[in-house]
Amino acid sequence: MVLLGVFALAGHCSAAQPDPVEPRPTAAADPAPAGLRERLARGLREARERAGLSVADAGIQAGLSRSRLTAIENGSRVPEGGEVYALRQVYRLDPAELNALMELQWRLEHGGG
Q1: 113 pLDDT band (50/70/90 cuts)?
Q2: Closest by alpha carbon to 83, among 111, 110, 106?
């Protein structure tokens, strides 16, 4: 009789109600990653402009294509850590600014938090 109750309960739970797991928000629905992405893109763009370089020149010096650097600067692509570091050398960023940009990049690469 106990077994019948367990099977009935198991059948009732799985068929009648879905698991109460909340859906995970996507990057587009979560404002934090979008804000982080925008801050990283703006920081890199402003650093390039302060260095007096065009996108093409900065890309050549950092070993990035113009289209790749443009995508990074407009926030449509998150740069890899090595790309941020390469840009740091081209833009001659001070350690504090590099650390701030690398932290944003790391947070975006590891879940936006």
Answers
A1: low
A2: 106
